[in-house]
Amino acid sequence: MLGLFGVGALVMRGAGCTINDMWDRDFDKSVERTQSRPIAAGDITRFQALVFLGAQLTVGLSILLSLNTYSIILGAASVLPVVVYPLMKRITNWPQLFLGLTINWGALLGWAAVQGSCDWSVVLPLYTACMSWSIVYDTIYGHQDKKDDQTLGLKSTSIYMGDKTPYWLTGFAATMVTGLGIAGVMCEQTMPYYVALGLTAAHLGQQVWTVDLNNSQDCWNKFRSNHRLGAIIFVGIVAGTLAKVNKDKKNQDKKENKGDS
Prior knowledge:
There is one protein chain. The chain is mostly helical. The protein contains 15 helices and no strands. Helix 5 runs antiparallel to helix 8 (106-115), helix 7 (95-103) crosses helix 9 (120-142) and helix 9 (120-142) runs antiparallel to helix 12 (165-186). The longest helix has 35 residues, at 226-260.
């Protein structure tokens, strides 16, 4: 199931990027950092991109149809946000919020695929944490293009937050850590998970308070560092779950030994 969702996440995030580049072709031509993107540069046509998008969505659909009915319905509901997200930068200062709503759908879908439905006491704080994380890293990412975006009349949290970005992102980082903490408690996670959660808080603090928002390369480096943060969280979940399974097994063995005696 983990491998299946890994492929699904790769394909559907790729589809989101394809849709974004199709919508933003004309804007990307005017932004220095994105001028070399294949559609903006004219290396591939919109029709070719559409064919590629169709292939991506076909793979995503085949994976979705292998899941239970609840998950199929939940997954189908994610298509509209994927399509409309790229338009948000034209109409709201919070496109990063819509990005978080869109790309973190897997937090809901993964639980439903394994359990048959969503336990909202777990998945809602998890989903909120993931959305907050997206706002943190994509706001830092967006500071690379803020001058070009302002010239083009586009909106973003990077522009909206401006010099107060570290204070805003501290709030979202705290929301992320809190959400992950609540999800951990509801799942009866163990110490390794909470150690990883502490490292997560430290990593977020380092990102938010050391990034030079006027240095594109530093913004890029901080954005890229979230790969390491994701690895920390993943290892924490796996290690915490293994420790929980081991603890439960020991408790079960004790009960059986008492019963035998």
